[in-house]
């Protein structure tokens, strides 16, 4: 009799589809997959300060300090993972050849589906999606001034306190979002996987082209 397959334990993770900046960096040989799994930084973004998480989830673990401007896309990591924050010019210099971040073709208002791979357990509060403002400059690293001031979508578990519901608050392998309907051209999307029982979120970034 076949034994049921053991489900992988969930902790750190990365998006495996569609291709994120992290996936591009792995393909280029600049990073290993584990580094993309560990682009973690404070979950109070876009705030710059550590401390209690947003209402009504103050019973979640306090946030550590969120990523500084220019290091947002790597979750604040300033080691080799800093390449995730690079402009096209910086990447071209790094690689010694012309480079532009590949763009995912999308339509305004379409459903954008992502698939995650996780590697061991975190109690999940949810997922938060940010996008660049109209008129942002791809010649500059992403800072808060380049992004819309609030997320365009949040997908949160509502159970509180988390420690009474941790078995229910599982990280999602597949989830989706409706993209903004009023964007055109190249934009950067920042997706945060927000953890309830630590001070961190895990950051993933995508370059998209709204047709």
From TrEMBL:
Residues 12-208 form the Chitin-binding type-4 domain. Transmembrane segments: none annotated. PANTHER family: CHITIN-BINDING TYPE-4 DOMAIN-CONTAINING PROTEIN, GLCNAC-BINDING PROTEIN A. The lineage of its organism: Bacteria, Pseudomonadati, Pseudomonadota, Gammaproteobacteria, Pseudomonadales. Residues 1-21 are annotated as: Disordered. Keywords: Signal. The keyword GTP-binding does not apply. It holds the Pfam family LPMO_10. This is Chitin-binding protein. SUPFAM superfamilies: E set domains (SSF81296). It comes from Pseudomonas mandelii.
